[in-house]
Amino acid sequence: MRFGLIWSEAANGLRRNVSMVISVILVTFISLTFVGTAVLLQMQIGQMKTYWYDRAQVAVYMCLDTDGCPGGAATDQSIAAVKKQLKSPELAPYIQKFYFQDQKQGYEQFKQQFKGNQIAEFVTPQMIPQAFWINLKDPSQSAVLTETLSGAAGVQSVVDQRSYLDQIFSILNAASFTAIGIAALMLVAAALLIATTIRLSAFSRRRELGIMRLVGASNRFIQTPFILEGVFAALIGSILAAVAVWTIVHVFVRGYLADQIKSINFVGDSDALFVVAPILLLVGIVLAAISANFAISRYLKV
Questions:
Q1: Burial 231-265 (b: 16+ CB within 10 A, else e)
Q2: Confidence (pTM)
């Protein structure tokens, strides 16, 4: 009977403040959708780092005539010397495998990479440097190769591909942090809206609350229906946000991006359902419970 009365009071409060409840649902939905998107983006960045960093190569570019190297263009002797160093006891323990790419091979790869781009028409094989492509056992130890080979005869530069990946991931992280910032502002707005809704609901029932206190009802018994109102509205918004995030993953990420870019392992439906959705539900419920409890507690103290 006691629980029935509490649920009845909560339902009455929701019916009396339908417009405010809808506002809470919408603000919670939008803010938690940003939260879910940011979480998914961080998960995607983590997967991409694991995949691409393990496959990132170190490129040892040999000198061309136009590079202005002290010894001029790389010779067969300087190329053989670099190959010998890569096989030496000092560097071999760090290297998983390596291969040499001459100008013809490099030019064919360049044409394939920039197929359909006008820049390919102005590049000749003589403009493509010869290079050693090296896979390390531990990509984080690329500094060993850089320090050893940078000053070698015929070597123009030693480039760790992870430096390019870092630039890409920094852009993705910036987008993720932007989403988190917007989500944080929206969550603050949702918390304030929930608190305002609860205080208005309490104010409209102030006579009933006074009677309940006169007959000995505890503060907890009085507060619970109001907290349930906020939690119910936020729960609906959380569920809608979870559905929206799953739809984004299912339709856009897995249904479109995964088909267009097959070289990337994208987040899947299970990540949205079993990782992100519980987070959104938990955040929504906790946010609403805390906001509602704070609002009604302050009202009861007046």
A1: bbbbbbbbbbbbebbbebbeeebbeeebeeeeeee
A2: 0.69
